[in-house]
Amino acid sequence: MALSMDRALVVLKAVAEETRFRILVLLQGGELSVSDLTDILGQSQPRISRHLKLLVDAGLIERHREGAWAFFSLAQETDISRILSTIFECLDISDRIIANDRDRLTLVRQQRAEKAQGYFSRLANEWDRLRSLHASEEAVDKAILDILGDKPIRGLLDLGTGTGHILKLLGDKASRIVGLDASHAMLSVARANLEKAGLSGVELRQGDIHVLPFERDEFDLIVLHQVLHYFDDPARAIREASRYLRPGGRLLIIDFAPHNLEFLREEQEHRRLGFSTEQMTGWFNEAGLECAATSDLPPPKGAKEALTVSIWLGQDKRIMTDWPLNGHVG
C-alpha cells in the first residue's frame, strides 16, 4: 500500500534529524541494542532512548525485548523500507561521521564476539564429547541440504537456534530469517557468529517454543535442530510449531535415533533418549503433517558410545506440493 501524504511527512520528519539518521544508517547493518547505540554514538542512554521511541512511533524501526535487553532493527514495511533504501543508496559512505560510526560499530561487534566466545568456550568440552559420538557436522549439514532440495524458502524459523548454525547453513536460501532461543547468552553467541559470517537482516528473538511470538501461518520452513530431546512433551512442541507453518509448509527435525546413553540424561539434561520414525510419523499426523522424507546418518565406525542422527521432514497437509510422500533420502 502506498503512503499517504501525512504518513510520508511523519516518516521524513523522523528521518530529518542527525542522531536519528545516524541510528538508521547503523541499523542498516543489522539489529542493535540501546547499549550498542550509546557506545557507538557517544550519547546518553535517555537521549538515545528518546530518539528510538520517535523512530518506532514513526514506523521506521521495530523493537523487541530479549530479557532485560531491547533490540532494534529497521522496519519490514515495504513502502517505508523502500524510502530508506533509496536514501541509503544515495548516501556517501565515506562521509566522516558515517565512517566514524561504522568504525565504532566494528569495535562494538568485536567486543560482543569476544564475550560470546568466552561463554561458548566454557561449554566446548561437553559439546566436543557429544559431537564425537555421531556423524560429523559436515555430513549432517549435507544431509539437511539434500533433504530440503531447491524448494524456495520465503520464511525460515529456527527454534532453539543456539549458536545460529542452522541460520548460517540456510540463510542464503531464505528471504526472511528468524532464530528463536530461550537463552539470552546463546542468542549473544548466535548474534556474534552471524555477524562474523556476514549474514545480515537476521531476526533473533528470545522466547518460549510453546508460546511463539509470531503470527500463525507465517513460515514455510521451521527447523528443530537437536532441540526436541530436551522436552518432556515433544509432541506438544511439534503441534505448536506446525501452527506457524503456511499451507504446504515444512517442519524439519534433526535429532537422535533411539539409544541408551544414560549419561546424556544425567549430565546434559536430555529428557528423551532419541526418537523412532514411527514415533515421529505419529506426532506429525497429530499435528496435521505428512512425513515427506527421512534420513539416517550412522555413527563413526568403531565408536563404543555411538549415536545415529535422524532427520525427519514433515509437510503441512493443507496443500500438496511436488514433494514425494513417504520418501527416503540417504
UniProtKB/TrEMBL annotation:
Chain coiled-coil ranges: none
Domain HTH arsR-type intervals: 1-95
InterPro entries: ArsR-like_HTH (IPR011991), HTH_ArsR_DNA-bd_dom (IPR001845), Methyltransf_11 (IPR013216), SAM-dependent_MTases_sf (IPR029063), WH-like_DNA-bd_sf (IPR036388), WH_DNA-bd_sf (IPR036390)
Pfam families: HTH_5, Methyltransf_11
Cited CDD domains: AdoMet_MTases, HTH_ARSR
SUPFAM superfamilies per record: S-adenosyl-L-methionine-dependent methyltransferases, Winged helix' DNA-binding domain
PROSITE patterns: HTH_ARSR_2 (PS50987)
Organism superkingdom: Bacteria
Official protein name in the record: Metalloregulator ArsR/SmtB family transcription factor
Source lineage: Bacteria, Pseudomonadati, Pseudomonadota, Alphaproteobacteria, Hyphomicrobiales
